Amino acid sequence: MKGPKGVFVCQECGYESAKWMGKCPACASWNRFAEEVRHEAAPARMSGRRSGSGRGLASAAVPIPVGQVISGDEERLITGIGEFDRVLGGGIVAGSVALIGGDPGIGKSTILLQVSASVARRIGPVLYVTGEESARQVGLRAARLDAECERLLVLPETDVVSIIEQIYAVRPALVVVDSIQTMDYAGLESSPGSVGQVRECTALLMRVAKEQGVPIFLVGHVTKSGAIAGPKVLEHIVDTVLYFEGESAHAHRIIRAVKNRYGSTNEVGIFAMTDSGLEQVENPSEMLLSERPGGAAGSVVVASLEGTRPLLVEVQSLVARSVTGTPRRTTTGVDYNRTAIIIAVLERRAGFAIGMEDIYVNVAGGVALNEPAVDLGIAAAVVSSFRGVPAAGGTVVFGEVGLAGELRAVNHADVRVAEAQRLGFGRCVVPGHNLKNMTRRPKGVEVVGAASVREALDAVFTGVRS
User: Fold this and answer.
1) Can you give the pLDDT at residue 57?
2) Over the chain (466 residues), what is each successive 10-residue block's mean pLDDT?
3) 300 lies in the same domain as 222
4) Element containing residue 432 per DSSP (H, E)
5) 155 and 109 within one domain
6) Cβ-Cβ contacts under 8 Å for 369 (sequence gap 6 or more)
7) Taking the chain, what is the end-to-end CA distance rounded to the nearest angstrom?
């Protein structure tokens, strides 16, 4: 073995340097470098013979034809919590490692404790490892959530080797580690939460999960920007990455899958925070539109698609005369740069003089919308507020706005229209190409196609007196 080697690692992004630096060249953070001591093994030596035997290397996997690889559906554990199973692609895959992150107090420990209790009652023993709380604190939360179960085992431990020993001894159906930043491996001299500790502890737990076929959930802290703390390689190691979204001012929470080797990405599960824990929301569109004011200027309903689930969401806008030389733009729930482009298109291509106006755009309910189909909803909400005229009653819009002012088609238009019909909306303004290609048109819904954003806006305000 070679002697120990010191390397300085950025605790924000994992960038490595041979010497200490004040500012990280990768993520531009200051004073985040910490030294880690590593022991490097000497490279394996090759023998002088050219034959296949006696090469002096450790045995490795043998390549096999892809046709001989056993394929088929992965075995999944059904938790009994439908929204959680939906995000994972139909249940928990045996031997998988999932990482779940979110803001402090958002409900990560709550949902995992509820999932643990459900799996313990339905399938078998569950090992809940708590590194941040005592066993008593977890027990009090379990009592509040009605998650008490004899087969739900709480282990207050931070040493990853001891945790692995308990996994071999208990052979649980599921393991939850809360959180990975508190885990410690004695083989590293760095402190818990450092890049080296997080990376090594995750790798050890991943190896156990694959060998024993036990699924493991890791809770991860997040940085100020909302990303999971630690090196980006942590998200590459695990099989599934889930983000817990929501705001403390709103009751609902959204679990979003941003990586899933066993299912669809960008799938979401929607929950409501109550006194007894997180409850599933079976009709999220109705919940998001429950407080929508009727006949209000600047309010437009948009048909969005989260994974395979259509959602009807209210987009609000407020346009006011700017009192400064620089107009203000503020967005919540939609991309700021995308909104700025739509505003420019409205002024240049559609003829609305809104360049010197303060414009505020908000998605009601605290939902974050990222897909281009929301463009038309933003444009309609801004124009509605600017003109002081509400959109026509019972109208839902969706479509991507191009820089030339054209309205581009989006995917799964028929699913969006069907969701609007289910909630009682009688009119949909959609891109013209989507209207031509729609094979199924729900009865009772008027579908209006538009080729440009100006034509779409005329259809949105048809029959409304200004």
Assistant:
1) 40
2) 70 83 87 74 41 44 81 79 92 94 88 96 96 94 94 96 96 95 87 85 94 94 64 80 80 88 84 90 88 90 90 96 91 95 96 94 89 96 96 95 96 93 94 88 88 96 66
3) no
4) helix 432-437
5) yes
6) 302, 304, 313, 315, 333, 334, 363
7) 81
Place of tokens 């990222």: 370
CA atoms within 13 A on the CB side of 398: 32
In this prediction, residue 56 carries a pLDDT of: 40
Structure tokens that stand for 317 in this block = 């806008």
What is the longest distance spanned by two Cα atoms in the chain? 91
Same structural domain, 218 and 302: no
Tell me whether strands 309-321 and 357-363 are parallel, antiparallel or unpaired: antiparallel
The burial of 406, by beta-carbon neighbours within 10 Å (0-12 exposed, 13-18 middle, 19 or more buried), is given as: buried
φ and ψ at 298, to 5 degrees? 90, 5
How many domains, the chain? 3
| Pairing verdict, β 240-245 and 216-220 | unpaired
Domain range for 369: 286-460
Cα separation of 159 and 22, whole Å? 31
Residues 241 and 375 in one domain: no
> Same domain, yes or no, for 260 and 181?
yes
268 and 323 inside one domain: no
User: What does 251-308 look like in DSSP terms, one character per residue?
Assistant: SEEEEEEEEETTS-TT-EEEEEEETTEEEE-S-HHHHHTTTPPTT-TTEEEEEEEETT
What's the pLDDT at 195?
82
- Two tokens, residue 110: 């709550």
DSSP for 405-430, written as a single string: SBEE--S-HHHHHHHHHHTT--EEEE
The first and second tokens of residue 303, run together, are 């048909």
Task: Report helix, strand or coil for 457.
Answer: helix
Task: Tell me the helices (H) and strands (E) count for the chain, helix number first.
Answer: 12, 23
pTM comes to: 0.79
What is the per-residue pLDDT for 22? 92
Contacts of residues 253-257 at CB distance under 8 Å and 24 or more positions apart, as own/partner, are: 253/106, 253/107, 253/111, 253/278, 254/367, 255/83, 255/84, 255/87, 255/100, 255/111, 256/87, 256/306, 257/87, 257/88, 257/89, 257/307
